[in-house]
């Protein structure tokens, strides 16, 4: 599709991740002249080093786990040993091949996204951009040795979507070999013998789950009382049960004071003085926005103490004409939210109709095994009186399709407004919960009642039938 450009409105986008990518496409759709500045590759860390690679690794881990569990369905794998007896074969994971595949997939996704931008009419500048006041961007395109290594780009609207990087602790500096950030995991050639994961948030839980299925011994160190401290308590408890059953070592209420390399091993020293020794350590202790040194404060853009850009619901910053989207801004650090913010920013700047981000309608998913998907108000908010609602939980084990597929761990939970029965939230803990959450998200978005949700015809048997069954159980008597 081609567009006629309005040369009177120039949009510069810093960062080509989900937020910057969607902002650029929205800009050309609106008829503006759009320049996108990206230093590592279109798609940003979400595509190249974070979401796409990690979910590809997790897909391999889930496949490995499925092979291990397939005996429940009556399927047996066997090979003859040296005595001619049939024995179960050993499952081996070629991590070098896995990592090569995931990097190829990530790179191809980046190439496809770049091609789509170029075909749409977006000018792409490879380099590092910084603001030179509110209406101009300076791009370093080389090593800065000559005048030709810099571009000066005038901007009527600037969208900052520079993302974030793994947080590094001075007492646990990554070396890329044994002490790793999540960006460095994909350089490993072999499955770690014993990986210690420091941090029990989403990133830590996902990788701990994946490497357990890949065959690693895993120790998960959490400074909080439980895994996933900010998530649904029932889901977190279920995941801990699965982790322990799978042989994972959980060290809750334990803070890692330092991580040191000892030859081919790593030693994690905890705050109580005890030590955990393993072959590798993954530091999953949060992220730092990539906002330092790019001229934001000089341009009048307000930042938080941690460096996040303060934005409102239409992605506007404190400086007119400058917007921010994604992990560098004060909003939910989700690729889907970043993309929405990017589009919203450009629509707002160009005077088009906008739909501000509504946090209560945002779905999120944790790609553990089982997955945990959520939307809307939480059970804790209901219990604390922040929201008025009823809670119903349906164990997945009661669902006929789950029984057929030998799925024992999981549940569907619905939250409905007291009195009216309007669906205000939900949680799904299940394989492919990320796919199953959509009907609940639609119900929340469009304020459907449990009776309206229950009237939808789900296939029998299906996992989605658990959603309509839960809704039916919450019927509001007329």
From TrEMBL:
Residues in the signal sequence:
none
FAD/NAD(P)-binding domain: from which residue to which, for each copy?
A: 10-342
Q: Which cofactor does it need?
A: FAD
The UniProt keywords, alphabetically, are: FAD, Flavoprotein
Q: Say yes or no: keyword Flavoprotein present.
A: yes
SUPFAM superfamilies annotated for this entry?
Answer: FAD/NAD(P)-binding domain (SSF51905), FAD/NAD-linked reductases, dimerisation (C-terminal) domain (SSF55424)
Cited InterPro entries: FAD/NAD-bd_sf, FAD/NAD-binding_dom, FAD/NAD-linked_Rdtase_dimer_sf, Pyr_nuc-diS_OxRdtase, Pyr_nucl-diS_OxRdtase_dimer
- The Pyridine nucleotide-disulphide oxidoreductase dimerisation domain covers 364-470
UniProt record similarity statement? Belongs to the class-I pyridine nucleotide-disulfide oxidoreductase family.
> What name goes with this protein?
NAD(P)H-quinone dehydrogenase
Organism expressing this protein natively:
Amnibacterium soli
């Amino acid at each position: 599709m081609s567009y006629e450009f309005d040369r009177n409105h120039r949009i510069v986008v810093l960062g080509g991740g989900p937020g910057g990518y969607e902002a650029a496409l929205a800009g050309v759709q609106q008829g503006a002249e759009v320049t996108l500045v990206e230093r590592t590759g279109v798609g940003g860390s979400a595509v190249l080093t974070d979401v796409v690679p990690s979910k590809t690794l997790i897909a391999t881990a889930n496949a490995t786990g499925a092979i291990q569990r397939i005996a429940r369905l009556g399927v047996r794998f066997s090979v003859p040993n040296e005595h001619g007896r049939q024995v179960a074969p050993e499952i081996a994971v070629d991590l070098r091949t896995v990592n090569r595949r995931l990097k190829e997939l990530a790179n191809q996704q980046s190439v496809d996204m770049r091609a789509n931008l170029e075909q749409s009419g977006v000018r792409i500048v490879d380099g590092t951009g910084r603001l030179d006041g509110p209406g101009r961007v300076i791009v370093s395109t080389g090593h800065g040795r000559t005048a030709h290594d810099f571009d000066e780009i005038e901007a009527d609207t600037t969208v900052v979507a520079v993302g974030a990087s793994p947080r590094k602790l001075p007492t646990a500096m990554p070396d890329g070999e044994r002490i790793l950030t999540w960006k460095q995991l994909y350089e490993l050639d072999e499955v770690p013998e014993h990986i210690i994961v420091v941090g029990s948030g989403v990133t830590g839980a996902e990788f701990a789950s994946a490497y357990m299925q890949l065959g690693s011994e895993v120790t998960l160190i959490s400074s909080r009382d439980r895994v996933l401290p900010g998530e649904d308590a029932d889901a977190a408890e279920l995941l801990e049960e699965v982790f322990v059953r799978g042989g994972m070592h959980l060290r809750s209420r334990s803070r890692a004071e330092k991580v040191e390399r000892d030859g081919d091993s790593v030693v994690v020293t905890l705050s109580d003085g005890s030590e955990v020794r393993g072959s590798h350590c993954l530091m999953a202790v949060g992220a730092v926005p990539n906002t330092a040194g790019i001229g934001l404060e000089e341009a009048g853009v307000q930042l938080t103490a941690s460096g996040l850009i303060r934005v409102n619901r239409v992605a506007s910053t404190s400086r007119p004409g400058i917007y921010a989207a994604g992990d560098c801004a004060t909003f939910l650090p989700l690729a889907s939210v970043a993309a929405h913010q990017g589009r919203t920013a450009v629509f707002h700047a160009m005077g088009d109709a906008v739909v501000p981000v509504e946090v209560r309608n945002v779905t999120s998913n944790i790609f553990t095994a089982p997955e945990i998907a959520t939307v809307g108000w939480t059970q804790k908010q209901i219990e604390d009186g922040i929201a008025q609602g009823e809670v119903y939980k349906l164990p997945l084990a009661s669902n006929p399709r789950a029984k057929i597929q030998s799925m024992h761990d999981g549940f569907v939970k619905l939250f409905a407004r007291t009195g009216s029965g309007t669906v205000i939230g939900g949680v799904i803990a299940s394989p492919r919960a990320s796919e199953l959450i959509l009907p609940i998200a639609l119900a929340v978005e469009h304020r459907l009642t449990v009776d309206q949700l229950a009237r939808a015809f789900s296939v029998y048997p299906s996992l989605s039938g658990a959603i309509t069954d839960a809704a039916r159980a919450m019927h509001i008597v007329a």
